[in-house]
Amino acid sequence: MARVADRFRVRREAVVGLSFAFPFFAFFTLSFIAPIISSAYSSVFSKQLTDGGFGPEELLFVGFDNYAVVLKSAAWWSGLGNVVTYGVIKIPLVMGSALTLALLLDSPAARGVKVFRLLYFLPYAVPGVVGAILWTNLYSPNLSPFNGILHLVGLDASIFTSPHMLNPSMANMTAWTFVGYNMIIFMATLTSIPRELYEAARIDGASEWQVVWRIKLPMLRGALLVTVLLSIIGTVQWFNEPVVLRTTLPTISSNYTPMMMAYQQAFDSQNTGLASATSILMALIAGILAAAWLGFQAMQRRTGTDGFDL
Amino acid sequence: MKKLFKAENQLPASLRPSRTTSGITFAVLVFAAVYFMLPVWWLIVQSTKTWADMLSSSPLLFASTNSLSANIHQVITYDGGNFPLWVANSVFYSGSTAILGTLISLGCGYSFSKFRYRGKKILLGIILVGMLLPASLLTIPLFYLFNTLNIVNTVWSIIIPCSVSPFGVFLAMIYCGTVPTELIEAARIDGAGELTIFFRVVLRLLGPATVTIALFIFVATWNNFLLPLVMLRGKDLLPVTLGLYTWQNYKAEILIAQVLTGSLLGVIPVVILFLALQRYWRAGLSQGSVKA
To answer: ipTM score of the complex?
Structure first.
């Protein structure tokens, strides 16, 4: 008897538990899982006109042809190149600045921590697109407040949007939004370390620098792992900044990044198959990069590095 | 900050930072503050200027005449008065996804932390992978899916995806772990139904923690750009971010004063929310990073 009652209790717990999880997973399936499956499906089809262009459109199974078209296009590779140059600048810029500011605010030499913390974090409250609109106008030679300084060395704000400076300038737009956000994450980790640890180290003769290098930075490793991972994934989907800057800068093409290319394929050329293939290829790249970063970190941990090195 | 002073006072005089160290630290902190606040100051100044004033006066100083009210009037009435509607839309999308998203996240987190059943590990793994999914890349596939479901260009095309927050579930799971299981068992023995326990016991105990989740979802929805760009047609359903982009996209210099003043107005609600709810932000980000 007891066993039957037990089994009933276990079963009831499972039913109730799953019911509480159900609404979330229903929405999750509809918004995340279903589009992955449906785009994988439509990426292997192509719309073809029948009867020499006079008949109705017909879906034709084309296998991996759409992927081949994307991979053979010059725009895909130049878009990927832009993502790489932007990411290689942006990720170290954002993480380096956020780490530096978090460590400075956490050091005993800092004053006015609360005020500075708020001022650095505030840009995150500005929606990315509005931030991009702001910086687009801040880079405009007519309006830029940086003209004053640049004039001193014989330049003007058009330098920001010159071909070589374009990706660094857009990395700066993103940094303005995200440095404070990441800094707060690092600061939260630092405050979770007991202060006595630093004091003991200092009294034992460690310098403030040694405290940073030997205690604080190794402690921040976990937070850095996650923030860099999210930053990599954000970079692969790069869209907002070039789209907004394009409104005043025709030199940015409509397929400047692969995400923009997918948008163009979907809405300008109305090519479902190509847009799906591009989206899936980029998602794969995001997955590969994320796995590579995690693998790299795991390898470093196994070799047992002392102190901090990245 | 209190903590900081205390820690410093415990240090012997020889270990306290020197005046030079403090001075350099302060200088770097001020320089960073100028970098982050310069665009904000510039935006406030531009919102008081006409296009002609912007060209003729110094970019970081006010012009001789103040055109703020004229600019605001222009923003509010332009093209039949879309702007107030866009702000209202943004409030509606963000508010409804914050409520709905928080509820379903809490339900899921509650399920993970207080119930035992087979397959829970797999579902948990899905949440963790979900936190890493490149959501923007799925937006175009989502458009095709919603197109076949006939919900493109409706509020549902925004509300459904924006209510899904794997990070919210993650936070909810941590929070629900703090609710004593004995309390839930006691309510069950008293004959309370499962939904009653969830709403009356668990949610009430979590209280402020739910604000953190709601805040993250609210801001994420307010800031979203690609999703409404892909899903919405026409002008009536646009959120304020997309509306401002359409103005910027007219590429008309004469509209710049209006775009910038609109940007300032469109940012104010989120900034107020930020300042008022600061500690909830920091709570969420620290729990997210420390437990991860």
So the answer is: 0.88
